[in-house]
Amino acid sequence: MLDRSKLSDAYGPATDIPRLLAALEPDPAAGVWDELISRICHQGSTYSASYPALPHLLDAARRWPAPARVTPLCLAADIVASDDTDAATRAGYADTHAALRQLTADTLDAQAIPQSDLVWLQRAFLLLCDERTWAPGWDRLLDGEVSGACPGCGVDLYLVIGGEGCFATAADCINGCDTPRVAIVPAARAALVWPGDWLFDIAHRHGDGALEHRIVHAFGTSACPDCGTPFRLGDALQDG
Question: What span, in angstroms and rounded, lies between the C-alpha atoms of 152 and 36?
């Protein structure tokens, strides 16, 4: 039997966690979510009260319609992906972990999910599959730029896929820049392998051509603007 009186969160004894879990609601803007996330997954760190919250997050997501599941499933995935929890605790929640992964897959099959939520749910599923190359920064890569490094010379790079275009550069280009850029050549759809093929299929099933375009570029190739070394974007990513 779990002794909740001995659990802790980011701020100390986890005495408020049962109240917060009981107050969960489908609206992602509800204040309860900010408070809960700050306590059990603070800036990616987890605590002894974090894993015991997983069954409650799963139960809430199961009860709510697909569009309302994004917040509980993404929070659960971030908890599972943290390295702060010991192997024995993880093993004790293996069934919950598997159920979360399946529900996330089922939710991705639902219709009327906007691109932003599709991207977050894709990220959550990859985390729940313990995929660590693409998952951590999947949302940032498809929403502007993500940092990386040239596999050849090691220079810091920014990999840009968004409104500014699709290219690699050695300067932050979110607000525009005039430093050298090397275009990202998109991967051929037929050449995509896991997880690229799965990510593309999700976007295709939802009829999201813009997301398809971003995905084939994410799995494409470019070259270092400093030394000219060619690389696949996945080989240049740094910590997502």
Answer: 43
